[in-house]
Amino acid sequence: MANIQQINGDYYGSKETLTEALPYSKINNSYMSAINNSFGIADKELSIYDDAIFYYNQAIKVSQEQIDKQSPLNNIAVVYIKQKKYDKAIKILEGILETKAFDNFIKSKARVIDNLGFAYYKKGLNKKGLLLMNESLDLRKKNDDVYGSIESYLHLAEFYSQTDVQKSNEKAKKAYEIASQLNSVDERLKALTFLISNGSEVKYGKKYIAINDSIIKVRNNFKNKFAKIKYDSKKEKDENQILRLEKAETSLALQKAHYQKIFFIIGITSLFLLLLYLRKFYENRNRIEKIKTAYDTETRIAKDIHDELANDVFNTITFTQTQSLENESIKETLIQKLDHIYSRVRGISRENNNVDIKTNYALNLKEMLSTYNNEHTNIIINNIEKVNWDLIDEIKKVTIYRVLQELMVNMKKHSQASLVVVKFDSNGKTFFIDYTDNGKGCEKSKIVKNGLQNMENRILSSKGTITFDTEPDKGFKVKITMPK
Fold it and tell me: Cross-referenced PANTHER family, in alphabetical order (predicted)?
């Protein structure tokens, strides 16, 4: 049941069903290995990578045969690639290929070779990576591993996307064709992503939207249908059990007290299980709501930027069509309009580009904050060097960068502040950030969530805290506390 839920994209539901399977895992270690591996797959698809690695390692621990350890080991390597820990992934995959018994499992071996080649490519060893990815594809073709070849084509499409767009499109189209034949929706979407990013026809964008919308509806319907099936099945079992007990009670009056005791125990157990289920249900729902809130907020911001920028471009095009560009003053006006659009585009790019979390993190963070310094607003940055950024987790660095960026954007749009102070501090296990501006502020009860809610979700997901302090005409203050 859990595997069926995973195939249909219901990973949270799959984890709940796997929990129900745990009591039966004591029968055989292979059951426990399979359950832990499935837990790992669900967490990998939900991007909970540390939990995924934990479950894969648990699967390895209970595996009695060396060959049974290869699948979870390969899965750990895939997670490391997603985390950009390419050296760790390469070490694991090379170790798997050294296992002699593994030579008898051609399809699995081809998968490992492909992942190893992809890891080499991501590390920058392009020639070695391309050789292994092509070797894997040939092996899959020879052994009629049609489904496995999809992953090979997708990896090759990503490889060529930086050097040969035509080849990248060829590989992506091949992956799309096979995925369509096998009705593999997620792989079709990945292939369309490469075709769109490579600048292919608009039709691929339309296909992506149509397929994505369709699969969301199908999977949502599946979740509801699956929950009802489980409910009906449990209800039928309970009703049959009650009927049997009632018949037994009628024919065996002397055992009435015994059956009453059984019913009492069943009732208490059912109540306990119901409370446990409700707790997990609401925890999952709150998590999904937070993710959805962040997604909706970012989508809204992206739409607003797109619409506003599109209006400027349209107005400029109209201006060129209705004015004589031979006139110097009109040419100057056109140049000013284009320069304004160029500045807007650079601003958008700066706010959404990748964050350098390596050695230049403090400098990049300071430069990002300083870009909001202008003739109307003075930005003061204190003690940024006081924090040892090398000791801080990479995800937390990205979180801090994005939260401060959103604070600065919020200040620029709403605050009308002339002075902004961002102060950093640190102790042994925690670092602190205090943001203060002298803008117009607002009543706490009337704070518009949107971006502020997004900031709060980011900080809470990294186990930090964030508090907002503001009053009308008394500025805006934010205090962030984050464990290292």
Answer: NITRATE/NITRITE SENSOR PROTEIN NARX-RELATED, NITRATE_NITRITE SENSOR PROTEIN NARQ
